[in-house]
Design goal:
The complex is a heterodimer. Helices cover 0% and strands 55% of the residues of chain A. By secondary structure, chain A is mainly β. In chain A, the strands form two sheets. In chain A, strands 2, 4, 5, 6, 9, 10 and 11 form a seven-stranded mixed beta sheet that branches. Chain A has a four-stranded antiparallel beta sheet with strand order 1-3-8-7, with no helix packed on it. The mean pLDDT of chain A is 92. By secondary structure, chain B is mainly β. Chain B contains no helices and nine strands. The termini of chain B are far apart. Classes of the chains: A mainly beta, B mainly beta.
Chain lengths: 114, 109
């Protein structure tokens, strides 16, 4: 069983469209994250949710809206897609916040905006 | 701001030990040293972490200097599948994980 799974793995769309990426973890973790890796390969944190509550919101445009229906799911919705949104988006989860431990990452969702 | 500095790239012969250094001279007492790696655009993979003592697991060993200002990740017998970007991260248990540019390790046959 995949611990952190993301769908879709690949997404090609036109500028101006709205799209969503879904993430699910079956590890029983309380905290989930979205990271963005652009063409320069830098991994940047976007959001973090702890038990469905937003705890980290980096300087991300309002067009990006995370939603956590329960602590096992963290979805990312992007409105009015722009060329610069093309990147690989990684979902991750970690155990109880405040406990030293590792992040578990999904395989990534490659978004291409044309 | 980056809390760690790592070499941009390194080579290692297959079967030899790969020693990846990391400087973290401003580390504070409650910050851990973590290592992750990313193999060719896959999701980053946790390797190991430590606070003060050296640590070893099935993947690697982590050697932290006594003053904690630097550390070395050791892959004892590097294989071609260990070719990846290796990230050294310093953080408290509450901090978010911030990735720097890392070290691109190439294992050469």
């Amino acid at each position: 069983d995949t611990a952190v799974s993301q769908t879709p793995k690949y997404l090609v769309t036109q500028m101006g469209n709205d799209k969503s990426i879904k993430c699910e973890q079956n590890l029983g973790h309380d905290t989930m994250y979205w990271y963005k890796q652009d063409s320069k390969k830098f991994l940047k944190i976007m959001f973090s949710y702890n038990n469905k509550e937003l705890i980290i919101n980096e300087t991300v445009p309002n067009r990006f809206s995370p939603k956590s229906p329960d602590k096992a799911h963290l979805n990312l919705h992007i409105n009015s897609l722009e060329l610069g949104d093309s990147a690989v988006y990684f979902c991750a989860s970690s155990p109880v916040r405040g406990v030293a431990g590792e992040l578990f990452f999904g395989e990534g969702s490659r978004l291409t905006v044309l | 701001d980056a809390k760690t500095t790592q070499p941009t790239s390194m080579d290692c012969a297959e079967g030899r030990a790969a020693n990846l250094p990391c400087n973290h001279s401003t580390i504070s007492g409650n910050e851990y040293v973590y290592w992750y790696r990313q193999i060719h655009s896959q999701g980053p993979q946790y390797i190991i972490h430590g606070l003060k003592n050296n640590e070893t697991n099935e993947m690697a060993s982590l050697i932290i200097t006594e003053d904690r200002k630097s550390s070395t990740l050791i892959l004892p017998h590097a294989t071609l599948r260990d070719t990846a970007v290796y990230y050294c991260i310093v953080k408290t248990s509450y901090d978010k994980v911030i990735f720097g540019p890392g070290t691109s390790l190439s294992v050469i046959p």
